[in-house]
Design goal:
Belongs to the short-chain dehydrogenases/reductases (SDR) family. It holds the Pfam family adh_short_C2. Keywords: Oxidoreductase. This is Oxidoreductase. The protein has a 7-stranded parallel β-sheet, with helices on both faces. By secondary structure, it is an alpha/beta fold. It is built from 9 helices and 7 strands, in the order αβαβαβαβαβαβαααβ. β1, α2 and β2 form a beta-alpha-beta unit. It has one domain: 3-Layer(aba) Sandwich (Rossmann fold), CATH 3.40.50.720. The chain binds nicotinamide-adenine-dinucleotide (NAD). The site of nicotinamide-adenine-dinucleotide (NAD) has 28 residues, from α2, α5 and α7.
Length: 278
């Protein structure tokens, strides 16, 4: 087959022929938007998880209604439990045979206190989900990816890809904010983890990147009216002077997972309306 013919064929196919995996996929936040975005982009095999079984079920139902051809594996659980994480990754590989695009969104807010006011329990809670949970999940994903053959890229010029991981960190992993030390540190850890994994797993054909969202309009920060009032000034000091939407973060995650990002490795991509420009 000529190269032109093979390129034409590839361009008519989805960028996501493999299996997508998203944590924190319930509700109406970034994980939910990312799960929908993968299926909208033609990915037909998707695994989703969240600690909240009710809202996870709603995400799965809403995807199935819009895209009846999508195969969805939705299992609720706690990503800070290594038993749950290892068992769920095992179920994904058993059902779909592999996993290719992993977006690790599950996270919790910190206690909203400075360090001397923060209890050990509050510190441990935020780190158990944001840092330990991200490490447990990406560790299990890397192990599974290392056992599978790479998938061809969307064009013949680029190398095949064995897998891509996108960890959702935060702009607060890069810059500080008052009364957020435990949360900022947990997200800084996610950025450092991403960079080191990117170095260690490049040789295996796996890319590991992270996204550092700015203020995104999700239930995470918007549950109460006073939350909204407290957070708005942080959105308004960014050059774009608005909150971001979950689908704007999802689009960045899909790019980083796709083979269009074939030379992007260990990057901490800000998606924050210019809040952090360095
Ligand atoms: N919204 C923002 O402004 C913002 C900014 C920067 C970073 N982030 C990060 O983006 C990610 C997604 O947040 P979001 O804004 O979409 O909020 P969200 O609350 O919609 O999503 C977080 C999800 O994680 C789930 N979760 C919490 N603990 C869990 C656990 N132990 N195991 C499994 N799932 C668990 C929640 O149930 C929830 O569905 C988080 O990691 C957050 O830190 C959000």
């Amino acid at each position: 087959m000529s190269k032109r013919k093979s390129d034409e064929m590839a361009s008519s196919e989805t960028m996501f022929p493999g299996v997508a995996f998203i944590t924190g996929a319930a509700g109406s936040g970034i994980g939910n938007a990312t799960a929908h975005a993968f299926v909208e982009a033609g990915c037909t095999r998707i695994a989703i998880t969240d600690i909240n079984p009710t809202t996870l079920d709603s995400t799965a139902k809403s995807i199935s209604e819009k895209y009846p051809n999508a195969q969805i594996l939705a299992v609720a659980g706690d990503i800070s439990s290594s038993d749950f994480v290892d068992s769920f990754i095992g179920q994904v590989v058993e059902k779909f045979g592999r996993l290719d695009y992993c977006v690790n969104c599950a996270g919790v807010l910190g206690p909203g206190k400075d360090s001397t006011s923060t209890s050990l329990e509050e510190f441990d809670k935020v780190n158990a989900v944001n840092y330990r949970g991200c490490w447990l999940t990406s560790r299990a994903q890397l192990k599974a990816m290392m056992r599978q053959d790479p998938l061809p890229s969307h064009d013949a010029r680029r190398p095949a890809q064995r897998g891509a991981i996108v960890n959702i960190a935060s702009q607060l992993g890069i810059v500080g904010r008052p009364n957020a030390a435990a949360y900022c540190a947990s997200k800084g850890a996610v950025i450092a983890l991403t960079r080191s994994d990117a170095i260690d797993y490049s040789a295996h054909g796996i890319r590991v990147n992270c996204i550092c969202p700015g203020v995104i309009e999700t239930p995470f920060i918007m549950t109460k009216q006073e939350d909204r009032e407290a957070i708005l000034p942080f959105a308004e000091i960014a050059p774009m002077k608005r909150m971001g939407q979950p689908y704007e973060v999802a689009d960045a995650a899909l790019f980083l997972c796709s083979t269009k990002a074939s030379f992007v490795q260990g990057h901490a991509m800000t998606v924050d309306g210019g809040y952090v420009i360095n």
